[in-house]
Every structure is written in structure tokens, then in C-alpha cells.
């Protein structure tokens, strides 16, 4: 079997077959009837092999995983599937593993509460009858797709034939392991071309648009800060020049350097504070609309806005204070000598 051969490749730690891989677009659902109910609950159903748990790194939170020594755990069909096979399996019953979201969706109080319960569903072709589906274990929720897509409620079924993807967990040099796996693949099947992707590459491609958008926002934000600082510096220079006599008079009347600096800094800090108060509601509305497109997202608390305001105010003060110090320390006699 190809899975057993792949396990022998140096560096390979676990191999599993699956109908749901990293960022796959296929969807397969079925209606399950929980105990004590007559209403169907739509749950995703995907075939996997025993090695999928370790290969994908799933966490078992209750019960057990599939055991190759227990016939009821096996839901493998010979191809082409015959109706009498489905009838026989329907009469026998099957064992499945749920994820935590499926447990909650089916109305169980906890993962431990779901283990041992029997669900009902017509899993196979019409006319094959209702199937007793025994829950033998529960695994933690895993995100197989983008964070924009809600986590699936999943029922895993143990199948050695049929799943379309192979998940391989390895250790060591990626290129070396990939080369060894490709060589083994070609030994087993020369007719089917070898196609493999690292999960890191898949996820990088999946979030490529988000990374590009973040870089564009960062570049324009930096440009806006630079332009704002230039404007503040120019305005500070103009204001200080225009108020040279006033500053000289204040100095003569006993104003200290820090008093003059505080006066000028506060004059330029007020517009920054007012601008933040105007920008906060707009930014909150835009960010909330963008974050709502993601299934998993951070909470939009006041903290980011306060930090942004503090940074903006700090940049404004740093831009103005240097020029203010130079003007405040100047000898007032030079400003007043022509009077």
C-alpha cells in the first residue's frame, strides 16, 4: 500500500489519507439525527485513514481514534461500490470521530458526553436504510481553510481507499525529504505525475493578498507620517517666526524656556488630538467592516486607537519641540532691539 511505502521514507513521521486537506475547496455534508431528536443536523463528512490524526497533528480530547484491529471502525468500500455492500454496512453500523464544533452543533453537553452516543443517518444510497453511527471519539477543532472561512463541523470516517489527498508529516531538510518521497512515488506509480506542496507554501499563497495589502497600507502610512511631519515642521517654523516678538516679550517678562516650549507644543498638539477624535469613529467603522469578513478575528477594543493617538501625538511633539527650543532659547534682545 502506498501509505506503508511512504512511511519507510527517511524523515517521514506520519502519513494519512484524507478527503479534506490544507485549503482544499471540496465540501461534503450529511444530515445526522442526534439521540432523542427527529431533526437532522447538517455536518461535514470526510474520509480519512488511521494515520491522519498524527499526520495532521489533531488533538484527541475525548474517546479514542480509529483502530485498524476493530472492523466496525473501517468504512472502506471496494470500487466500484455495490449496493449490497452499502446495505451490509448500514445494517452493521459504523464508528466515527467528531470534532468539537460538530459536538456542540449536535447538542451534546461536552466531548465526553458525545462519546458512546448513537446518531442516525441514511449515509449511503437511498434504499440502503438508516445507519447507526457510533461516536467513538472527539478531536479538537482545526482550521483547514482560510480564516475568512468558518470552521467546519466534521464527522471523520475511517477509509483506506477513496480519499484524494495524502498528508505527510516529516522532520529534516524539506528538499531532501521531498526528493525521497518523489522517488518512492515514481517507483510505485509511474503513470500518475507526482504533485506535492508544503503546507507553508499553501498558507503563504492563501494569505498573499493580505500580506500585500498590509505592505501597501504600511507604505502609505509611512508616507503620510513623513508628509505630516514636514508640514508640522514648516508650520512650526512659520509660527515661531511670526511670534518672535511675542516670545521675546514673554522672555523679558520672566517666561522660562520650558514655558515657551510648552506653549508652542500645546498649540500644535490640539489639532492632532482633534484630528484623532474625528478619525476614531471612521477608522472603527472601516476596521469593523473589514474584520467581520474573517471567521477568526481580534477584538476591536479602544486600545489600538489610543496607541495610535499617542504615537501621532509623540511624532507631532518630537517634530515641533526641536524648533521650539531653538526659538525659546534665543536672546530676546534680538527680537526687540529695533523697537
Overview of the structural elements:
With 339 residues, the protein is α+β, with helices and mostly antiparallel strands. The chain has two domains: 2-198, no CATH class; 208-336, no CATH class. Helix content is 48%, strand content 16%. It has twelve helices and nine strands. It has helices at 2-7, 52-56, 83-92, 100-105, 111-114, 174-188, 199-206, 208-242, 244-252, 257-291, 303-328, 332-336; strands spanning 12-18, 29-32, 41-48, 60-63, 94-99, 118-121, 131-139, 154-158, 165-170. The strands form two sheets. Strands 2, 3, 4, 5, 6, 7 and 8 form a seven-stranded mixed beta sheet that branches. Strands 1-9 form a two-stranded antiparallel sheet. A hairpin with an 8-residue loop joins strand 2 (29-32) and strand 3. Helix 8 packs parallel to helix 11 and helix 10 (257-291) runs antiparallel to helix 11 (303-328). The protein is elongated and about 105 Å long. The termini are far apart. The mean pLDDT is 85.
